[in-house]
Amino acid sequence: MSETKDKIVAMADRLVRTRGFNAFSYKDIADPLDIKNAAVHYHFPAKADLGVEVIEQEIEKFNSSTAKWKHLPEDEQLAKLVDVFRKHNGQGNICLMGSLATDFETFSPPMQTKVQEMANGIVSWLTNCLEQGRKNKRLHFKGAADARALIIMSNLQSSLLLSRVMGPSAFRRIADQLMEDLCQK
Amino acid sequence: MSETKDKIVAMADRLVRTRGFNAFSYKDIADPLDIKNAAVHYHFPAKADLGVEVIEQEIEKFNSSTAKWKHLPEDEQLAKLVDVFRKHNGQGNICLMGSLATDFETFSPPMQTKVQEMANGIVSWLTNCLEQGRKNKRLHFKGAADARALIIMSNLQSSLLLSRVMGPSAFRRIADQLMEDLCQK
DNA sequence: GTCTATATTCCGATAGAC
DNA sequence: GTCTATCGGAATATAGAC
User: Fold this and answer.
1) Cβ of B123 < 7 Å from strand D?
2) Residue B184: per-residue pLDDT
3) Residue A40: which nucleotide is closest by CA–C1'?
4) Does the UniProt entry include the keyword Transcription (chains A, B) (predicted)?
5) Which of A32, A61, B94, B150 is spaced 20 to 30 A from B128 at the CA atom?
């Protein structure tokens, strides 16, 4: 992929996380990169094309990250995931899922499908991590692993939303309590 | 308040919950009510005025609901709150907090302040409910009540977001596991 | 309080030159 | 691959008649 195209996707990713998909324009991308909106349209004819690319890159990033953690104990894998959210919190970002879920009903079918693909991938990974972690006595929780995965995902997602409104300490308090719940016997 | 004004706020509330604040227009409100966009502007000169009113009505609704539950045991008060979210889930709504937190950075200062006021009110009530519930042995959880309040709020908030993307069963699985966590000893 | 009409701005998108 | 120029449409908002 060309350098400009990369920068466009990176800028779009940032804008989705800070302002939401429907609240940024091609101009918001073009101006900081010192190009014209027509150049953005050359790489991504429609805004939905850009949205799909942002999601696809996020899916790849998630898959390559989790693959790198594969050899770690499950509690440490989970801590790595929390660290990803911690970093976003420090940058004033919300997560892609949270941002795109809010605007979901306004999306074209191809974008909706991509969002669902991303959600399913994260929940699947989390469910498997929890199941294995419980088996290996690295993680402790009650109930079904897939329900717990949904709970943890919702905690991480909303921790960034609440941090934005209530101050960044909200993230830390949620993340700390979350890991404590899962790691103490 | 006039009847038309009430209908406008109700319609705006619905649109915020289904499409997001930045993704609906005065036309989306005026058309279904069979009035013109100028009539909406008469009641709410700027869109932010309408946003503030929607939030204020939600705060009042929350306060009057929780006041009605005051005599109930804390676990039942919590179940009542979950029921409010369950109803929204059935209607395809996300919660105001979730929707407005996503768009937060795009809001004018008066609207941002109102969102923060709403968030603080909900967390305060939840924290108090949890504290009293633990004291009365109706609710069981580890750690500080205010951290647990943030966790529960994030679960409820994101349960509606995830339901939208992954199907409405996501809400039920999260809500059921949540109440089970808190109610079993 | 609601209307018609319009001002203004911005957006996504495209045509065609370079 | 990027530009200038522009189209068509939609959004927020206002002026003034009724």
Assistant:
1) no
2) 85
3) D2
4) yes
5) B94
Q: Is the CB of A24 under 7 A from strand C?
A: yes
Alpha helices in A69-108 (DSSP H): 74-90, 96-102
The confidence band for A2, taking pLDDT boundaries of 50, 70 and 90, is confident
> Is the separation of the CB atoms in B81 and B19 below 8 Å?
no
The answer to whether B32 CB sits below 7 Å from nucleic acid chain C is no
CB A163 within 8 A of CB A89: yes
B184 touches chain A (CB under 8 A): yes
Q: Is position A164 within any domain?
A: yes
Q: Per CA to C1' distance, which residue is closest to D6? A: A38
Tell me which residue range forms the domain holding B137: 54-183
Distance A23 CA to D13 C1' (A): 19
Note whether A13 and A58 are within 8 A (CB).
Answer: yes
| CATH code for position B141 | 1.10.357.10
| Nucleotide minimizing C1' to CA distance for residue B40 | C2
Distance CA(B80)–CA(B72), nearest Å, equals 10
In-domain check, residue B92: yes
Q: What does the pLDDT read at residue B2?
A: 86
Please say if the pLDDT value at position A80 is more than 80. Answer: yes
- Give the residue among A83, A170, A18, A133 at the shortest CA–CA distance from B102: A18
Model pTM greater than 0.90?
yes
Amino acid making up residue A83: D
- Closest-CA residue to A170 (of A160, A181, A157): A160
Residue A14 lies in a domain: no
Residue A185: band (very low, low, confident or very high) from pLDDT cuts 50, 70, 90 = low
Q: What is the sign, positive or negative, of the torsion defined by CA atoms of B132, B136, B140, B142?
A: positive
Specify if B45 maps to a domain: no
Report the number of distinct structural domains present in chain A. 1
The overall average pLDDT reported for chain A is: 97
pLDDT of residue A90: 98
